[in-house]
Design goal:
alpha+beta, 2 domains, 4-stranded antiparallel β-sheet, 8% strand
């Protein structure tokens, strides 16, 4: 009698991978935002036991080779114990087009929701708006999700699917619009839908005021000059003001957030932060002591 006769496969050691997608979350959890944790909660509600732990290990060790997110479907490849990577497909039940129209109409009346989404944050109360329109942001039932893996494990979801779930949670942390995409609406279409709703509302207001509508335009168009950007433009006669090392290092890359589906052995932010800090100190030395710094350059010949 073998393990396979019972439909059970004992734990196996996956083949080592170079250049795989590695989880960037620190030990103890995946995702920092409430919406990423909610997504992980959907996975953990399946009660698949030890496969969750193995999925976390796969995600942290970089066993996931690729992840492609399209409307309503995620396709991925995961390296397991066999020579050929396993193919993963996760399908999420999309919302209907009429459902999205109702949703964008409801959201357009609350500007704070749109502002937070554009800043990369999923408003916590947005789930109430979904519920009021008879919809749900996250899958509520098992039939709302359809998962498949080419591995021989009978369990669904298996550890390979679990690994992809965890990495998706991290990516949702960075870009909440991907949750909308899995529900059938990408970022551009969603924002366009909000714009159409706003136009319709403006037209109604204009008709109510006798057809008179005030139009505001910029007094001067914004100019995009690549040369001025890279050279800094013309020097100003005004004093530069206080020159000091920024109180918080690497502000720009911290605002950008984690790199999508990072494949490096170290977290990108942790690698670049010392570079930014050293550059700031070197810049201060050059600014405050230009003569001293130029003396360090050896003469020609």
């Amino acid at each position: 009698m073998s393990w396979r006769s019972h439909g059970y496969f004992p734990p196996s050691r996956p083949k080592a991978v170079k250049g795989g997608i590695k989880a960037q979350s620190k030990r103890g959890g995946f995702g920092e935002s409430w919406w990423a944790k909610r997504w992980i909660g959907v996975l953990e509600s399946f009660s698949i036991g030890a496969r969750l732990g193995r999925g976390r290990t796969y995600a942290r060790n970089g066993q996931v080779l690729s992840i492609n997110i399209e409307k309503g479907v995620v396709k991925a490849t995961v390296q397991g114990s066999r020579s050929k990577p396993y193919v993963i497909v996760i399908k999420v039940k999309p919302l209907s087009r009429d459902g999205w129209k109702k949703l964008t109409k409801a959201l357009s009346s609350q500007v704070i929701f749109v502002a937070k989404l554009l800043s990369g944050e999923m408003p916590r109360d947005i789930e109430l708006v979904f519920k009021e329109t008879g919809l749900s942001l996250f899958p509520e039932k098992l039939k709302d999700l359809e998962t498949d893996c080419s591995c021989p494990d009978w369990s669904n979801p298996c550890k390979h699917i679990a690994a992809v779930y965890y990495l998706l949670g991290e990516e949702f942390d960075r870009n909440p619009f991907l949750i909308f995409k899995l529900r059938g609406m990408d970022r551009e279409e969603f924002l366009a839908g909000l714009g159409e709703t706003e136009k319709a509302g403006s037209k109604t207001m204009a008709e109510g005021s006798g057809g008179q509508e005030e139009t505001k335009t910029l007094a001067e168009p914004v100019s995009f000059d690549a040369r001025a950007f890279w050279t800094g433009g013309k020097d100003s006669d005004d004093p530069p003001g206080e020159v000091r090392v920024p109180p918080m290092e690497a502000v720009l890359i911290k605002q950008l957030g984690n790199f999508p589906f990072w494949r490096g052995s170290q977290v990108l932010l942790e690698c670049l932060t010392p570079v930014y800090l050293n550059a700031s100190r070197s810049g201060m030395d050059i600014f405050l002591c230009p003569d001293a710094s130029s003396d360090k350059i050896p003469p020609d010949g």
